[in-house]
What does this fold into?
Amino acid sequence: MFEEEIRFLRKMSKRQLAQQILNFLMIVSSALMVWKGLALYTNSESPIVVVLSGSMEPAFYRGDLLFLGLPDEPVRVGDICVFKISGRDVPIVHRVIKLHDERKTGKQYILTKGDNNQVDDRGLYNPGQQWIHKEDIIGKVKGFLPYVGMITILMNDYPQLKYALIGFLGLYMLINRE
Amino acid sequence: MYNLLQRANAIFAFAMTVTFGVLAAIAIATPFLPSSPSAQINVKDIQVISYDYMGRGDSEFAFVKLNLDADLTSLFNWNTKQLFVSVVAEYETNSHDINQVVLWDSIIQSKEEALIKVSDLHNEYNFVDITTSFRQVNASYSLHWDVMPYVGVLTSGRTRSDQFINFPPRSNEYR
It folds into this structure.
């Protein structure tokens, strides 16, 4: 089935191989540029996130894609925010239900809760922590695309799929004659 | 020249392009659909009781009872998945200039449910200030709604809060 391609691979000179690798790197780096450009435009370090849990059902299900932005305006109650609890990597997408802005410092004291949870997020915060602040928030949810993020979840749950996909793509790049 | 793999690839790429084109068109068209939501909140009763909160001593808790009348059916178009409505109390204190607390929220998943009439709404979440006392502030109550589309941009709206109601002084028991 692949005899033609394997013959072609053997006949390829070092220069052609280098050319193919360079093409591959070009594609990867332009994808990276688009991603970073988007992060700059939305002012968020991670402008597109995948919903990982069901705590915001029925609005967001696991595998939905969210578009974030972080405008300069302060957080207001009802905003759906993506935030990280300090010391932890996992971003959480929940809604702001309480807000107290300190008059003198302008510091915001924010309490969040997932729509599908019975209690607010104090159980999730660090021990002794009762509020989160603007610095913990990496973006507000602006837009939404269902189901598309399922690929990311599948790749996280089955890492072999990730390696298989990268291996397949790499092979395809090398044997592609264009 | 055109084997099965190439044809499948071409079909798949075209299908993806068309799908994303349609989704983008839906997302862009949705904000132009007209809507005219309306809501009315009438506060019937407020009581303030003080008791121990999270082990840091006595704090004042407010118990609010109100009437809610809202017609949000015009927000439901073919791209609306659900509405998230919440009753929000807003007030100002000496130490904190903006305080917003959600008292009650509800998820509305169909146009029929969007005609809301609750006559004895009690606050679902505890209404407690970040300081220990409300000091009889006056607070305004408004309805906020978030429209969640099937695909596209999330929009929201709210009623104006022009009616300010004073808190009563702390009472010793819940009447």
